[in-house]
Design a protein that fits this description.
Shape: globular
Largest sheet: 4 strands, antiparallel
Order of helices and strands: EHEEHE
Distance between the termini: 6 Å
Number of strands: 4
Length: 85
C-alpha cells in the first residue's frame, strides 16, 4: 500500500480493517519526508478470500497498491496461503 501526501495522514489501514471486519498482519512499513510532504508504504499480509474487498476499498479511497504473491517473495518456498498487498 503506497501512502501519498493526501493519504499519509489518514488512518486508512485501521479504518479498512474495521469497516471490512478483516484481520491482517502488518509486515513492514516506511514513512519519509519528501518535498514538504510525508510519503510512505505499508506491507500487509491477508487471507486470499479478503483480497477482493480490500482492493475495492483501497481503490475507492484512491490508495495506490500492488499485489505481491507469496510465491514471488525471495527465500519463500511455501505455496498458496496468504497474499501480501
Amino acid at each position: 500500500i503506497l501512502l501519498s501526501k493526501e493519504t499519509s495522514d489518514q488512518p486508512i489501514i485501521t479504518r479498512m480493517a474495521r469497516e471490512l471486519q478483516t484481520d491482517f498482519l502488518v509486515l513492514g512499513g516506511e514513512m519519509e519526508n519528501y518535498r514538504a510532504s510525508v510519503l510512505g508504504s505499508v506491507i500487509i499480509n491477508l487471507a486470499e478470500v479478503s483480497l477482493p474487498a480490500v482492493t475495492h476499498y483501497l481503490d475507492q479511497h484512491q490508495v495506490l497498491w500492488t499485489l505481491i504473491d507469496r510465491s514471488e517473495v525471495v527465500g519463500d518456498s511455501a505455496q498458496g496461503g496468504n497474499l501480501g498487498v
